[in-house]
Amino acid sequence: MTEPSRGTAVIIGAGPAGLTAALELLRRTRIKPLVLEKSAYMGGISRTVAYKGNRIDIGGHRFFSKSDRVMDWWTSLLPVEQTSEANQRLVYQGQERALAALAAATRATNGPAPNPEVDDLVMLVRPRKSRIFYLRKLFDYPLKLNLATVRNLGAVRTARAGLSYMASAMRPIRPEKTLEDFLINRFGRHLYQTFFKSYTEKVWGVPCDQISAEWGAQRIKGLSLRKALLHHLKKMMGGGAAEIGQKDTETSLIEKFLYPKLGPGQLWEEVANRVSAGGGEILTGWTVCGLHTSGDRVTGVTARSDAGGEHFFPAQYVFSTMPVRELVQAFDAPPPPEVSEVSDGLMYRDFITVGLLLKRLNIRDQGQGESLLKDNWIYIQEPDVLVGRMQIFNNWSPYMVGDPEKAWIGLEYFCNDTDELWHKSDRDMIALALDEVEKMGIAARADYLDATVLRMEKTYPAYFGTYDRFAEIRAYVDAYENLFLVGRNGMHRYNNQDHSMLTAMMAVDSIAAGTFDKRGLWEVNTELDYHEEKGEST
Fold first, then answer.
1. CA gap 241, 235 in Å, rounded
2. How many CB atoms lie within 10 A of CB 338?
3. CA 282/CA 270 separation, integer angstroms
């Protein structure tokens, strides 16, 4: 006899957290997921945008995780490509599996390892390369103490960097209150000012000494100059074979990663298809504008359709990935004044990508001749331009580019939705991007072929404003036992997509176990080792 349905879970947002929650509910419970997405797209900021035969990955998404659970979840949906490189391996959570072994483990459900030349549902194995652009030169990231770095910096700057780092190592700033403190302690004041300050302040729009050190703990974690040097020395001594998702390798040091053939949105579109096929429902063009409560439970949500009109959706459970500020404003029972005060003071940074199709790039690596740079993205540390980062989509996946002979790049700008930059026309943004790549010597305006502009609101939840009082919001929303805040904007946490997925998985764990303990959700991405792995047997 089929177990009767246990009601509906309304999931606000079809990003990684929302879609993960929907598929997990279908796989593990009798609860029907109903996903309300205000856009027409799947994946949130992890979606892929198609433009005239080319594809844009908004922000760039490497697929790796220290969580076995996430890695297996991804590869069960998009199995790893055929590979003949026997030395490539996955190393994460203290385990090690060759790519061939991973393909064999998933063959029972997915068939033979796919060939990307003929199969679309496939994870590619891609090399990771990111660098810093400073002084109109390219520097390795993470920083390496090698001849190229010394030559690019010059003897005087190199000596200053070394002395500055030793000074910080001997007399670290205590306590670490700001992001500036965090970075100086790990790299020294000179390297901080040289390689981190300009880019970071472009991202956030405020000085680093006004940003909480927690941002560094979230995004950079244990990385330091010392660890970068040790990693480099290990490679030189033969201990650095290609690894993906390493347990004992800091995130920024990983040198191989998995990537969907057609960009990250391909995976989330596949998840959405499986949700719909499994009995779930996904509605696009619906913006949640009200949360209805009774006692310590949320009874449903009201959403407004782009087509006109509002509708009430009853719910036994609610998962929210919408921005916390909007969520608090949507409660039908007014929150306490102090909670509203904190919520109203939360801040976000918005994001613009200018996709440029060019005949070629002018900037080259030594010895590469006319070949394209191999970088996935380049951090622009030049203070005389507004662009913060540049992606080269050719290097994420060759299938992202209609004509591989052309350079398909993304110029990324960070701003607030109140800034003049945000309100520039597409034409003006394209002109700005062309001016800046020419000014930096990266490309010539004469090689311009085509362009498009994408704007993403609330891409980065900020660690300033009233964020230091966020615990007051958490205490308020967690009191509603059937309301689960998950994902980046849902928790106002600068999470990667694997962290966002884990929060959704843990929320479903709780529901499946008949409990409403949410402490584990808030511990995800707060330490180097994921807390949730300790209780995965739930």
1. 7
2. 12
3. 13
Do residues 47 and 264 make contact, with C-beta atoms less than 8 angstroms apart?
yes
Q: In a 3-state reduction of DSSP, which class is residue 245?
A: coil
Q: Are residues 380 and 432 in the same domain?
A: yes
- pTM here? 0.87
Q: Does some domain include residue 89?
A: no
Q: Which two tokens stand for residue 371?
A: 């070949």
| 470 close to 485: Cβ distance less than 8 angstroms | no
Is 163 inside any structural domain?
Answer: yes
**HEC readout, 8-53:** EEEEECCCHHHHHHHHHHHHHCCCEEEEEECCCCCCHHHCEEEECC
| Residue 460, token pair as written in the block | 């980065």
Answer for the pair 157, 187: CB distance below 8 angstroms, yes or no. Answer: no
Give the model's confidence band at 295: pLDDT under 50 very low, under 70 low, under 90 confident, else very high: very high
The angle subtended at Cα 201 by Cα 199 and Cα 203, nearest 5°, is: 70
Structure confidence at residue 62 (pLDDT): 87
Identify the pLDDT of residue 1: 36
- Is the link from the previous residue into 175 a cis peptide, with omega within 30 of 0? yes
Cα distance between residue 246 and residue 254, in whole Å = 7
The answer to whether residue 262 sits within a structural domain is no
